[in-house]
Each structure stands twice: as C-alpha cells, then as structure tokens.
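We emphasize that the prediction below concerns an isolated chain of 186 residues; any contacts that depend on oligomerization or on bound cofactors are therefore not represented. The input was used exactly as deposited, without trimming of termini.
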Amino acid sequence: MTSPFARIEPYDRSRHAEGPWQVVAAVFDEYGFPFAAFDYDADLREPEQWYPPDRGGMAVAVDGAGDVVGCVAVEGNPGGVFELHRLYVLARARRRGIGEALVRWAVARARELGGVALVAYSDIAFTDAHRLYERLGFRRFRFRYAPDPWRSREWGFRLDLASAQSQAAPPTAIACEAKSGSRSAK
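Result of the prediction step, given as a token string:
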C-alpha cells in the first residue's frame, strides 16, 4: 500500500532498520550495478557509525505506510567542505519531489554544521540526479573514477552554501503520489 506523503527524517535504526540498505540495493539492481554489502557498500549496514549526526548524518524519506523510499547522507570534511552521499529514491516514489527534499535536507544539514560547500559525486548513468543538482544550484566541476572496486565513472557537483539559490528551507513533508512500478535510480 502506498501513501500520498513522504516525510524526511533523520535515520534512526529502531524505526528505519535496513531501509537505506534496501533502497540502495534495489536501485543498484535496477541498473545492473553490483552491491557489495560487506565491502564498498558496508556503510549502509551501519549508517549511524559511518554518518554520525555530529558530522552530518543520514536522512530517509518515509511514506505514509512507514516504508523507507529514499535516503541521503552527509559527511563533514576538513575546511568546511561537506560531501553528499547515498542519494537514492525507489522508482515507485520518484518524480514526486522526494529527491529534491532529500538534497535540501543535506544542504540545510551541511549549512547548520558550518559547511561552506557541499560536494556530490554521481554515477554518469544517473542523469535525473544530475539535472536535479544543477537545478538546485550545484555546478558540475569534475569527472572522476569512483573509489569503488569497479572504478565507476562519476560526475562531481559542487554547491557554494552561501549562494542565494540554496537558501530555501528543506521540506519535511512533501506531497507524493507514490505508485507501484519498477525500480529506477535517482
């Protein structure tokens, strides 16, 4: 059963359990990407350890039924440059503003912790995410081979947190007409 709303909330193992792991694994499956639960993707087994709230944290998008349908993480780095990680939304919840709400949460969180910039790296296959980042004021600034075992090809995006376009408050609840469907990546 689906719900017309999704809430963005900080990750809490007691409420969200394996939700982020399941979301990312589903999106990887759709794109034919390998999912390495005990290697490169081990951060999703213990997000509270990899993304502690005092250094950024993880947020999830939860639909009205209580299901995790999306996730994002933020990690602080020296010099105030934060990195956005793990932006993924299940196919059935896409095109409803959930990805944007998750990015806005990440922007607000980095700013709240004193960040001066937010950087995101995104596989070249995730063109919808690239358009979202650019629409929200990120600029594409580099290409890289990811530090994963497969050397995935990624675009880098950077947002100056003082920019006017990034000042909007993050929505905590958004309307979404989630519907059943196949999985596709954000």
